[in-house]
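### Sample
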Amino acid sequence: LAGIDIAKSQGARYRLGPEMEICGYGCSDHYYESDTLLHSFQVLAKLLESPATQDIICDVGMPVLHRNVRYNCRVIFLNKKILLIRPKISLANAGNYRELRWFTPWNKARHVEEYFLPGIIQEVTGQETVPFGDAVLATKDTCLGTEICEELWAPNSPHIEMGLDGVEIFTNSSGSHHVLRKAHTRVDLVNSATAKNGGIYVLANQKGCDGDRLYYDGCAMISMNGETVAQGSQFSLDDVEVLVATLDLEDVRSYRAEISSRNLAASKVNPYPRVKVNFALSCSDDVAVPTCMPVQWRHHSPEEEISLGPACWLWDYLRRSKQAGFLLPLSGGIDSSATACIVYSMCRQVCLAVKNGNADVLADARKIVNDETYVPEDPREFCKRVFTTCYMASENSSQDTCNRAKLLAEQIGSYHINLNIDAAVKAIVGIFSVVTGRTPHFSVYGGSSRENLALQNVQARIRMVLAYLFAQLTLWTRGLPGGLLVLGSANVDESLRGYLTKYDCSSADINPIGGISKADLKNFIQYCIENFQLTALRSIMSAAPTAELEPLVDGQVAQTDEADMGMTYAELSIYGKLRKIAKAGPYSMFCKLINMWKEICTPREVASKVKHFFRMYSVNRHKMTTLTPSYHAENYSPDDNRFDLRPFLYNTTWSWQFRCIDKQVNAL
């Protein structure tokens, strides 16, 4: 309703909202419930009755059950009358999307049926049935056709045939989530749609966290004849954003007039059913009304995307979970420091939104800090209220990482705690020794690899236990109400390799960097140094990544991540992209890498690297079943929940695949 109000106040005659906007896109298996359908119709009735929806065509999204089949639909109405219910034709069913689980695609091209409205809608509209199917709207002055999200991405997009049949305005309601470096693809698809065929394309997308790992990243846009004329924000804390444009239909007609190939194809197109609408989008005395001119689309850099996307997702999660803030185990390494910087970026976004007059953000901030008069103005001061960082030292920790964590906490303003876990570690190991009569030792003191790993795991797991204890009670000790959400900070590459202890500090409530690569996090840290003036990050950037779980040698860290993993982070990123995006098994990955790495590795060395990766990946895959919910940012994420569906009990010898590799190595 707020969006419709704003659109009307700015003179709009047609208002488009995002996909499934009435119930929310992320209902998942709740779509099966009749309650979801009932409540959607109840909301639709409220919209139809509202004075705000009069004299403007409103296009809203909701699930509809037609002849006992559930469809993802657009409901288009004007002045308390439903004009058309348009079901989705191409369903999204790859990656994070599971639409075929809940919905059926409308496979009857250019076919319309009668839909019998439920009683609560009949009472408002006075209609018993309305058109349901693949049709377009013919107003007094133009013709409008609908696409829904995935249909834009399909090879046979409806806008192609609709455009040939004289549709001049295409609308697209989307539920498209953020992935690093993806925004330009959406923009290019929209602009190319109107460049080839002429026309006006209007796209509305969901924005924000819809209750899961995804952040829907807005980027609403309006395009005409191949050029963007209006651009919405990709990331913001605004719950409602409206994009309005005034365009000249004659520009579409003159553009199309000289595309002879289009006009030849249009002469033999199969026509769409048209729903006649006694309403015009233009008015007779609009000659002097200025039209919108093309704009240059501004894309965020990947570092800006990391700074803004996960920050907005964290804010949505914090305000909706009704917690009082976050707690982060801050180790002084790149990953936890990047997580801290994202929280700081969130605080900056909140202060900026309040400064710009966003009353909703101010109200949420006051609830979170439990102060009805509070106004967040300084990001560091707000950070102190909502963000607690904790350095958990052990006898294996260096003074360098302790100092780095402390200095970064000071610069971002977090409430910082220093503690030592040695007493707890000794107590746990002591219990084991009393029961078994044996005491495990690190390998540097003569212990076996099993002892060495177990002693590292104990330290890591105790940190998780302490993180949750401090998250629950830190505010209590300070005389403040509420609890804190625990943040994890394992990156996407470490998760893929399984380079983490199950149920250590990678286990948390949510993880804003779990879908981001080590390489991108390093670039993000550099961005924070330059844009947030966080000089403490310089020494963090220059230090070698380390878990600090093995004894120091002469007071210095001897353990490094890349040595432990047996591969570099750069290699790991390549393995991840080949495994997931290129769909490569061990043999295919080997075949691709002998060419990619021919200047630096022999085929035998490539074979050894590929085998090592797949052994480690398969041995550790079980850890993905308990992976902390992470912000989805990469298409090679190993998230086992719904994105990367694989077994977690493997034959880790990969006997057949590795034999194929060996045979190829010998031939080479």
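Residues 302-562 form a domain with the Rossmann fold fold (CATH 3.40.50.620). This sample (Glutamine-dependent NAD(+) synthetase) is used throughout the tutorial notebook.
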